């Protein structure tokens, strides 16, 4: 009892100190919880504030190290507090439990000692819980910092995380972080356990069957389906281009189906065991989706290159070039599968940022090398083919542009990796892959839709003949239906492709959402330290390019394919095409501004400034613009009309937004503002009637035979090939005067544009026939004043003739 009282009077953290330390050990500094806890808590709060305000990866990395050190300090404080708590608990154990109710009460000294020890224990427990809470908070904060840094690799493309030539980039390969090693080992053990569990007794036979089916599908599935597809195309599909497009599209789908079916068997092999961990299940499902995505890349390569059937190839490339490109799609698909699996593993396991950067950098490097090697290899094959005397395909501008874009993107990825912008390289890599897949699918499907439309409504096919006879259509209507259906299909496909390109991922239907690339990277944070949103800028540029291309294609389709098959006159067709083009450009401009993220309520000042500008300098432009719209809608004049305005006579060749182009008879062009057609008198010679009138008025002497002259003039008109029989030519007795008889002969021609030439031919022929018939034209009287020699003053000799 004396010992207990003495211990209670001594400091709690010093009790039994002599029994727990060696005599020769140096005295370690003792952590005082009441002093250290406020410091650690203040430090934790300060780190949280700095993390929320951090703008660079270096700051986050330093804060992460500081947070880990804080967690270590808190753990050290917990370790220093636990002996004190154990010591107090030991003293309470010596005192024993408090006496039960009704038993003899303990002495006052013992009761005081018990109260003191309980208060000390409560204080120490509170300090211990506080230290543990600080340690847990620091660990959680470290995890959050790592997540922020990992997300920054996706969203902040201007984040410099170190060149691939630096030692820090390759450090995860040779010096793995202990936490990463632990997590990866744990994940590997879970995978191993899931694989071994699939081969336990009772599960072994089913696993073997699934594995054999997967291997059989991978080995023989594509070959068998290719043969069935070839038989179907030759024996079922009609002859024509539909066979080529259907074969290419079906080949890509067959590849995805066969590879995906085998992967599905492997997925069932692992997931059918109930003891599989959730981490293994998630990883296996993601790998299955990634396999489908990689199979799509390989399938598109097989379908477009068509190595086995070069005569059915959609792409206009030579066989040696196609053979040279044969290995590129499977190689690219393999890289995406392997390193996509590594990235998914890093995301699920939660490895460090350095490991994530390493995986992203290696993936971008291999994809860039593959993409850059493709154009180089094809160009080298073409040069070799030329050197051997062969004839490579004639490269189109769009093909050269695609090669140039791929090469430039590959070089940009390599430069980004060399200077340390791994996030930018990752972004460009996934953009290159995604744009290539979308455009390849668009190319295949557009050809399939167009060829299918032509085959369905072709009079040469059985289906087209049945449609023609059942609906009572002629060939012209079938052609219009084919053109319209193909245009609708192409429009829908282009819109879907635009949505896929703008959103980065095509909803939830894309395999693995393209490795989660677009949704994570287009978050709107923009470039680091720059107020630029890459998603909005890229979307606007993509939309602008696609919009202009679609508009021009639609305009060309209207002008060349659809409208010529209708009963519209050429002027009406031209007006519709121009109106459609103008409205399309306005719509594209408005939607491009919306894609940039510009809110219309923020453009009030622009509208105000524009209104002032219209009031002063833009008034004429706006007036001509509105007049042009009125001309296209009301159509008082249209393209092809022969008009006269302000003394200018010619044919309308084009009605633009601001002015109208009029071609004169000498092939020169006069530009007339559209407002003049609204405010001035315009003579339209072809508006109501396309016929022209050739009228010639001649004056004959009074002594001629009118009937003879009349018959001669009518015969001249009737014999001319340009004069129409209906209405018949006519001769009118216009005037009778002292100078003679005026006869006016009139005939109709097919167009006002040939009136001048017809009148010239008629005059030549009339003069020839009148001279042969002895008919002369009336000679006008002339008064001649002559001055004679002066015979007498004031006498003037005047002769009148």
From TrEMBL:
Keyword annotations of the record: Cell membrane, Membrane, Transmembrane, Transmembrane helix
CC terms in the record's Gene Ontology section: plasma membrane
Pfam families: DUF3772, MS_channel_1st, MS_channel_2nd
Stretches assigned to the Mechanosensitive ion channel transmembrane helices 2/3 domain: 584-619
Cell compartments where the protein resides: Cell membrane
Residue ranges constituting the Mechanosensitive ion channel MscS domain according to the UniProt record: 621-686
Record flagged with keyword Transmembrane: yes
InterPro entries referenced in this protein's UniProt entry, alphabetically: DUF3772, LSM_dom_sf, MS_channel_1st, MscS-like_channel, MscS_beta-dom_sf, MscS_channel_2nd, MscS_channel_C_sf, MscS_channel_TM-2
Chief location: membrane
Membrane topology listed for this record: Multi-pass membrane protein
GO molecular function, one term: mechanosensitive monoatomic ion channel activity
Tagged with keyword Signal: no
Transmembrane segments: 205-225, 246-271, 283-305, 317-341, 353-376, 397-424, 430-450, 492-513, 533-551, 572-591, 603-622
Residues in DUF3772 domain copies: 129-189
Family of the protein in this entry: Belongs to the MscS (TC 1.A.23) family.
Annotated protein name in UniProt: DUF3772 domain-containing protein
The species this protein was found in: Acerihabitans arboris
Source species taxonomy: Bacteria, Pseudomonadati, Pseudomonadota, Gammaproteobacteria, Enterobacterales
């Amino acid at each position: 009892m004396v010992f207990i009282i003495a211990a209670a009077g001594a400091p709690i953290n010093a009790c039994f100190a002599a029994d727990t330390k060696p005599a020769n050990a140096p005295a370690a500094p003792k952590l005082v919880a009441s002093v250290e806890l406020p410091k650690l808590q203040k430090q934790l709060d300060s780190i949280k504030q700095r993390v929320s305000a951090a703008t660079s990866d270096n700051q986050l990395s330093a804060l992460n190290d500081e947070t880990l050190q804080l967690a270590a300090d808190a753990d050290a404080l917990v370790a220093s507090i636990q002996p004190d708590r154990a010591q107090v608990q030991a003293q309470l154990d010596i005192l024993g439990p408090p006496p039960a109710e009704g038993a003899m009460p303990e002495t006052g000294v013992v009761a005081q000692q018990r109260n003191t020890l309980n208060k000390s224990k409560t204080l120490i427990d509170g300090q211990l819980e506080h230290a543990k809470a600080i340690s847990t908070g620091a660990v959680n904060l470290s995890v959050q910092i790592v997540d922020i840094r990992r997300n920054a690799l996706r969203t902040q493309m201007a984040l410099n995380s170190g060149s691939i030539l630096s030692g820090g980039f390759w450090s995860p390969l040779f010096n793995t972080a202990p936490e990463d090693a632990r997590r990866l080992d744990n994940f590997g053990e879970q995978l191993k356990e899931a694989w071994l569990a699939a081969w336990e007794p009772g599960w072994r036979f089913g696993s073997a069957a699934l594995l054999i089916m997967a291997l059989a599908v991978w080995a023989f599935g594509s070959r068998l389906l290719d043969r069935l597809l070839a038989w179907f195309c030759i024996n079922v599909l009609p002859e024509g281009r539909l066979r080529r497009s259907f074969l290419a599209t079906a080949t890509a789908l067959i590849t995805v189906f066969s590879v995906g079916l085998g992967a599905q068997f492997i997925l069932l092999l692992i997931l059918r065991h109930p003891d599989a961990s959730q981490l293994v299940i998630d990883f296996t499902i993601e790998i299955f989706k990634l396999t489908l995505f990689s199979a799509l890349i390989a399938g598109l390569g097989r379908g477009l290159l068509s190595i086995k059937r070069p005569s059915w190839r959609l792409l206009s490339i030579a066989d040696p070039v196609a053979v040279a490109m044969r290995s590129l799609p499977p190689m690219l698909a393999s890289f995406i599968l392997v390193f996509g699996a590594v990235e998914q593993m890093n995301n699920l396991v939660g490895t460090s940022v350095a490991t994530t950067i390493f995986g992203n950098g290696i993936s971008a490097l291999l994809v860039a090398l593959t993409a850059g090697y493709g154009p180089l290899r094809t160009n080298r094959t073409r040069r070799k083919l030329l050197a051997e005397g062969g004839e490579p395909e004639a490269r189109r501008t769009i093909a050269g542009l695609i090669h140039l874009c791929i090469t430039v993107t590959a070089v940009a990825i390599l430069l980004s990796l060399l200077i340390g912008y791994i996030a930018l390289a990752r972004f460009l890599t996934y953009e290159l892959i995604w744009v290539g897949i979308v455009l390849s699918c668009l190319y295949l499907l557009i050809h399939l839709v167009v060829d299918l439309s032509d085959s369905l409504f072709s009079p040469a096919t059985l289906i087209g003949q049945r449609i023609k006879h059942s609906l009572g259509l002629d060939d012209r209507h079938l052609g219009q239906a084919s053109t319209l259906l193909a245009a609708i299909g192409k429009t829908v496909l282009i819109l879907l492709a635009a949505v896929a390109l703008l959103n980065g991922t095509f909803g939830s239907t894309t395999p693995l959402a393209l490795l989660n690339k677009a949704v994570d990277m287009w978050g709107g944070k923009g470039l680091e330290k720059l107020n630029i949103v890459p998603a909005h800028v890229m979307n606007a540029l993509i939309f602008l390019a696609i919009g202009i291309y679609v508009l021009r294609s639609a305009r060309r389709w209207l002008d060349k394919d659809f409208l010529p098959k209708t009963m519209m006159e050429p002027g009406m067709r031209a007006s519709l095409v121009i109106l459609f083009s103008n409205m399309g450009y306005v719509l594209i401009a408005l939607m491009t501004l919306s894609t940039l993220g510009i809110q219309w309520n923020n453009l009030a000042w622009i509208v105000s400034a524009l209104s002032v500008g219209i009031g002063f300098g833009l008034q004429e432009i706006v007036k001509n613009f509105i007049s042009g719209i009125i001309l296209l809608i009301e159509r008082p004049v249209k393209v092809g009309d022969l008009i006269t305005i302000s003394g200018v006579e010619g044919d309308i060749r084009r009605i633009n937004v601001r002015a109208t182009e009029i071609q004169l008879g000498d092939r020169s062009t006069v530009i007339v503002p559209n407002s003049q057609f609204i405010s001035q008198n315009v003579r339209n010679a072809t508006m109501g009637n396309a016929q022209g009138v050739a009228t010639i008025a001649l004056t004959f002497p009074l002594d001629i035979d009118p009937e003879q002259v009349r018959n001669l003039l009518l015969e001249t008109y009737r014999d001319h090939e340009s004069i129409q029989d209906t209405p018949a030519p006519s001769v009118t007795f216009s005037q009778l005067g002292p100078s003679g008889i005026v006869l006016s002969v009139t005939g109709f021609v097919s167009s006002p544009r040939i009136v001048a030439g017809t009148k010239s031919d008629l005059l030549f022929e009339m003069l020839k026939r009148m001279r042969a018939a002895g008919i002369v034209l009336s000679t006008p009287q002339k008064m001649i004043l002559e001055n004679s020699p002066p015979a007498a003053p004031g006498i003037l000799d005047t002769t009148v003739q």
